[in-house]
Every structure is written in C-alpha cells, then in structure tokens.
Amino acid sequence: MKPIIRSVNKIWENAEHNALTDLIIFQKKFYCVCRESDEHVFGRNGIIRIIQSIDGKEWRAHSVIKKKGVDLRDPKLSITPSHQLMLLVEEVVYEGEKALSRFSSISFLKKDWTPLQKICRPFDWLWRITWHKGTAWGVSYKPDKDKWRVWLWRSETGTEWRQALEWKIPGNPNETTLRFMDDETMVALVRRNFKTNGYAWIGTSKPPYTEWRWNETQHHLGGPDFIILPDQQMWAAGRIVERTPYGMFQKTALFTMSLDKIQPALLLPSGGIDCSYPGIVFHDQLLWISYYSSHEEKTAIYLAQIELFE
Q1: Domain ranges for the chain
Q2: 194: pLDDT strictly greater than 80
Q3: Theoretical Cys-Cys bridge with 266: which of 131, 159, 232, 254, CB 3.0 to 4.6 Å?
Q4: What pLDDT, in 10s, does the model give residues 10-32?
Q5: How far apart are CA 7 and CA 12, in angstroms?
Q6: Cβ–Cβ under 8 Å, residues 254 and 1
Q7: Per DSSP, what are the bridge partners of residue 48?
Q8: What order do you get walking across the sheet with 213-216 strand by strand?
Q9: Contact 189, 226 (CB under 8 A)
Q10: In this structure, is the dihedral angle defined by the CA atoms of residues 33, 295, 15 and 57, taken in order, positive or negative?
C-alpha cells in the first residue's frame, strides 16, 4: 500500500505551546486531546485541552482539565467496555527541573470529566492504555539515573491496576503503544533513548502474554503510535530522528510496520525544534493522524488525512 497525503490542516493553536496529542472517534465524533503550556517541559504547568469535531474539519473547544501546582502531560484517550471516554494523563510536580512527584491518573467523561484518580505506583509513567476484550493494558516506564525500567500492566476496571511482568529491554526503554491482532497476538512498539543509540523495538506475545519475542528496528521513533487495520496491515507514526552531516534531522513520519520492522513511508509537514506525538484512527478508508509541530514557528496541532493506494 502507498500512502498519499489528502490534506493537512492546523486544528488548534490556542496556547503558546500546543503539543502531545491523541485522537479517537467516540459516539460518531472526533476527539483530539493535547497539552497547552508555554514550553515542552519546565515551563508553565501544562493543562489538558480536549477539542471536538463532527467531520474532522471544523473543530470546537470541548473541555479543559487543569490542576493547581501540577504539570499535566501526555494525555491519551481510550474507550472502556462500558462505552465511556477515558483520559490518561501524567501528573508531575516540579521544583525547578526536578520532579518531586509523578503519578499516572485517569478521568472519565460523564456530564463533565471526573476528578483525576491516581493509578499504578508513584513515578511509574503509564504512557498509553489499550482496551482488549474487557481488559485494559498499558506499559509504564520509570527513568532512573543508571537504568530505565518498563513494566506491563493490566486492569479489568481501569481504576485498579496490577503488574503483569517487567520487560528486560536495554537502551532506556520508555514510551510504548500496545495493540492486538485478530489472532490475539499482542504487539508492542517501544521507544528507546536516542542518547543511547537506541532504535525502537517491536515485541510480540501470545496469551497469556508472559513470553515475549523482540526485534530491533533500524529507526529512532519518538512518541510512537500504531494502528492495525481490519486486514491486519499495520501503520505506525512518530518522530523520526536521524543524524546527518548537517545536523539532526527530525520529522513526524508515517511508517509501514510488520512484526519485526518499521519502514518510513511518508514525511508529514513538520519539524522545527519540536514535533510528533501522534494519534491515529482509521475512518472512511483514510488514516487520520493528529500531531504537533513547530515548523510554522508556533507549536500547534495538525490533522492529516492519508489515503492508502494499492
């Protein structure tokens, strides 16, 4: 399949710095979530902005989540088995550039968003939640000075979580997306630290998901997301980073993906000093990809529509 850009539109630039997106369709409407602040990190405490659209073209402000004295980061959306829209965020309290506390927290959209509820353990950063047949799965990472550690978690309620196992992955693994194939294979796409020359890893496991097979890709990937289409094709997106003789090259890119590799297929209009953290949905035979970028000076949120051709 060959991807071709049908359109790319800027859909949000309310704050000085608009970043860290996710995208979902809920009750026949698009929901895009992002973080608003003045910097990517160590600036003004971030708030979470949710915007909504019926057609993916015209967007309106839906709601805001904020917490006094707390930096809210990396919002992610999912839909529970009881058909509730669920938000995952990271709560961080900084003193200068030191994190005094860090919690993963969740909220549910009822008439309004419910108060943030802490889950997992302090300083375990649960990065994305994926629901599959009544169970929520996610991977947390914990940055340490010498070694970053990652754990697979599961929950039947979304509020009470337990560890399934720790993954022994070198190279400071961190941001991870999980998806499920029709044959129940769980697939993991794991970012590893660029400073350790860590290429992204792809992991696969069959139920009960205790034994994992890992493959190293040949690409650095920041803020990874991927989707498995009904025909089981996989497409990934994130920030591609490459060293060149002229400096660092970084763009938000779309990749073809298999169980052992990713391959760049398309560069989205992006760049500047900061970009990526996409959300992906498949709707009307198109890939819809939200992401942020600073290639037009102000860091803003964009939405791309991608056609797939044989």
Answers
A1: 4-307
A2: no
A3: 254
A4: 999 999 999 999 999 999 999 99
A5: 16
A6: no
A7: 35, 65
A8: 173-180, 186-192, 201-205, 213-216
A9: yes
A10: negative
Give the SS3 label for residue 259.
Answer: coil
| Mean pLDDT of the 226-235 span | 98
Strands 117-119 and 98-108, how do they pair?
A: antiparallel
Q: What is the pLDDT of residues 263-287, one digit of tens each?
A: 999 999 999 878 999 999 999 999 9
The whole-angstrom separation of Cα 269 and Cα 289 is 12
Tokens 């009544």 belong to residue:
134
Tokens encoding 257: 């993906």
Tokens of 169: 């992955």
CA angle 87, 193, 101 (to 5 degrees): 50
- Look up the CATH architecture of domain 4-307: 6 Propeller (2.120)
End-to-end CA separation in angstroms for the chain: 5
268 token code pair: 């989205």
Compute the mean pLDDT over every residue in the chain, rounded to the nearest whole number.
Answer: 96
Angular region, 291: left φ>0, alpha ψ -120 to 50, beta rest: beta
Name the token pair of 270: 């992006």
Q: What is the pTM of this model?
A: 0.96
Q: What is the pLDDT of residues 117-153, one digit of tens each?
A: 999 999 999 999 999 999 999 999 998 877 899 999 9
- 31-62 tens-digit pLDDT: 999 999 999 999 999 999 999 999 999 999 99
> C-alpha angle with apex 60: 298 to 45, nearest 5 degrees?
50
Q: Cα angle vertex 141, ends 212, 268, to 5°?
A: 85
HSE value, Cβ hemisphere, 13 Å, CA-based, for 258: 7
DSSP 160: S
pLDDT confidence bin for 235, thresholds 50/70/90: very high
C-beta contacts of 199-206 below 8 A and 24+ residues apart: 200/224, 200/238, 200/262, 201/169, 201/173, 202/257, 202/259, 202/260, 202/261, 202/262, 203/167, 204/259
Report residue 273 CA to chain centroid gap. Answer: 19
What are the backbone angles phi and psi of residue 214, rounded to the nearest 5°?
-120, 145
